[in-house]
Amino acid sequence: MSDARPTGPTWNEPGPGLEALSEALDEAATGVRELEPAARRRAEQLRHAVEALHGSGINAIVRRLREDPRGRELLFELADDPVVRLLFSVHGILQPTPVTESLRALEKVRPYLRAHGGDAELVRVDGDTAFLRVSGTCNSRALAGVTLREVVKEALIGGVGSIARVVMLAGDPPPTLIPLGPVRNRDGGWVAVGTAVGLGERPITALHLERADGVKADIVVISLDGQLIAYRDICAHQGLPINVAQLDPATGTLTCPRHGFCYDARSGACLNSPGAQLTQLPLRVDNGQVWIRVDA
Ligand code: FES
Q1: What CDD domains does the record tag this protein with (predicted)?
Q2: What is the CATH number of the domain that holds 149?
Q3: What is the largest CA-CA distance in the chain?
Q4: How many domains is the chain partitioned into structurally?
Q5: Mutation test residue for ligand 1: of 100, 237, 262, the one with most atoms within 8 Å of CB
Q6: Is pLDDT above 80 for 253?
């Protein structure tokens, strides 16, 4: 007896790539556009129904995976696959963060800034406000009266939908940013923050540095395989404190529990959102004493 089941295309492992899938989709979309109006409406209804089904299933899978640490790791790995990444983006699972979008917007104008002797650093994004440090912000003849700050503001407010305000911090961190009440200061912004032994005993140490005039600096020190690394206590996703992150010594990763941003604990590079980055601070050990330069 013959098998009466309908046959469809069979894909060999690992399946068609993004390009082949995109071509097939384009071809099908062109075919639908050429249909009579009534048939086109039915085809669109079918497409929406299939997308809704897939979206619901994918969201359920992602929700379940997010509940488990190993599942979250798998999600990060999966998101590296271009087809999965596209699927996640289509269904709103992967969205560029305001930080990522701001960094991209800055990259677009950076060649222009540098050509005019300037540069810009995104310090953090807080709600609808981006905080930046711009250097070389003087007017120059070449800029015909337009400052580098204005170029940066325009790039961010015009290029990132969620950014409505841009606050420029001083180009060079002002001396008032150098801490700090309970710690000792030294030339060049180096601050003694504790002993290497003490900081090495805890995977993550949050340090709140505050000087008499109320200026504050929050940092975290990560202890990993005998190495100490310092970052500003700011997750690159939404600018919230990163000191609640989980450090996994086996993988050398630091994961923010809020939305799952996962960082290489040694470099601060975000592994699941390329371009996002923790701000690392210079750290050195001198006679067992740990010093961090907070004006970096
Ligand atoms: S604040 Fe969203 S992942 Fe850290």
Answers
A1: Rieske
A2: 3.30.300.130
A3: 89
A4: 3
A5: 237
A6: yes
